[in-house]
Amino acid sequence: MILYEFITPSDPITFYAPDDDVALAVGIIIGSGKAGVTNTETGKSLPSLLLFLADLEARKAIEIPVATWEARKAECIVAAHSFAVCDKGERAIYDEFTENGQNGIQVAKWDDAHRSSMSDWCAYARSLKPAEAECKA
């Protein structure tokens, strides 16, 4: 799995995804076009929905993340459930502290200590269930 940064104006957030296609789909669906995604291994910034909407020709490209979300929903849900309020340098600490995000009590403690934004992107991402995760883009 590749570590990605979910770029928002407030808290640093990271998540894991198997590739850029899933990361882009998750970034657009979870972020509703208000967040960007960066691959921490390559440094490549993936386009956000806001960029798609700014360019008429690029808007056609939105079909790619939506199709990815629908075709690879299980992988997208796993990626969404890996959201954490931490930067890439803290991710190993987070993973150890929360038992890779599986210990809900430790996840809540971490979130309380690290989240400053009123927007709780991570709780929303982790709350998605496969049956509920219909693409709204």
Short description:
The chain has one domain (2-127). 47% of the residues lie in helices and 12% in strands. The chain contains eight helices and four strands; from the N terminus they run E-E-H-E-E-H-H-H-H-H-H-H.
Summary tags:
137 residues; 8 helices
What percent of the residues sit in helical stretches (DSSP H or I)? 40-55%
Beta content comes to 5-15%
Radius of gyration: 14 Å
Judging from the principal axes of the Cα atoms, what is the shape?
globular
DSSP helical segment count: 8
N to C succession of SSEs: EEHEEHHHHHHH
Which stretches are poorly predicted, pLDDT < 50 over at least 5 residues?
A: none
Distance between the termini: 25 Å
Whole-number mean pLDDT: 85
Class per helix and strand makeup = alpha+beta
Largest sheet: 4 strands, antiparallel
Tell me the strand order in the biggest sheet: 2-1-3-4
Number of DSSP-assigned strands? 4
Number of domains: 1
